[in-house]
UniProtKB/TrEMBL annotation:
<dbReference type="InterPro" id="IPR000758">
    <property type="entry name" value="Enterovir_OMP"/>
</dbReference>
<protein>
    <submittedName>
        <fullName>OmpW/AlkL family protein</fullName>
    </submittedName>
</protein>
<keyword id="KW-0732">Signal</keyword>
<dbReference type="InterPro" id="IPR011250">
    <property type="entry name" value="OMP/PagP_B-barrel"/>
</dbReference>
<dbReference type="GO" id="GO:0044384">
    <property type="term" value="C:host outer membrane"/>
</dbReference>
<dbReference type="InterPro" id="IPR005618">
    <property type="entry name" value="OMPW"/>
</dbReference>
<dbReference type="Pfam" id="PF03922">
    <property type="entry name" value="OmpW"/>
</dbReference>
<dbReference type="GO" id="GO:0055085">
    <property type="term" value="P:transmembrane transport"/>
</dbReference>
<dbReference type="GO" id="GO:0009279">
    <property type="term" value="C:cell outer membrane"/>
</dbReference>
<feature type="signal peptide">
    <location>
        <begin position="1"/>
        <end position="26"/>
    </location>
</feature>
Amino acid sequence: MTTLFKTSMVAGLIAAGLAAAMPAQAETPFMVRGRLLTMQTADKTDNDQAIRVSDKALLDLDITYFVSPNISVELVLTNPQTHDIELSGQKIGSLKHLPPTLLAQYRFANSTPITPYIGAGVNFTKIWGVSLPAGSGLSLENKSIGPAGQIGVDFAFDKNWSLNLDAKYIKLDVDLRKNGVKADTVNVNPWLFGVGVGYRF
């Protein structure tokens, strides 16, 4: 099975298990969502080299806590991802990363089933397993911390289930080093566009 399929199964089983554990009529401050995302990265560095990190489709699982009908906090999680590193369109290496993101949201709650929201927060990306040409002396910084922004909308089917559309921007810059000295900064800075299903407990 592919990693994407395994992650989908795990997310579905978690959501189903939590839903089964709660009475249908009970409503708690928690909601979980599973989303299918497309990650579109920037194609530049500070010094305009043609180095980029590949785009990718992936799954995420997020957990939302409602402070009030209008204010919520969302933790976005996914499994470790592998990306190609490209130079002028040719693969020169790869990396792995894990990018949890925490967002505070304002939800435009109203009497309709449609609830738009905006969010802002922080992303922490851990990078490891970097593979670059042997003998090049090139390496990448092993982490990135940066701001994240979000806009989205929930379409409620009933008091529990909803359809979600979501877009996020993450400021993710990684230093490129040559023999241990900073040579450039790779601007990954991805947009993530997602569609998913949510369950409110």
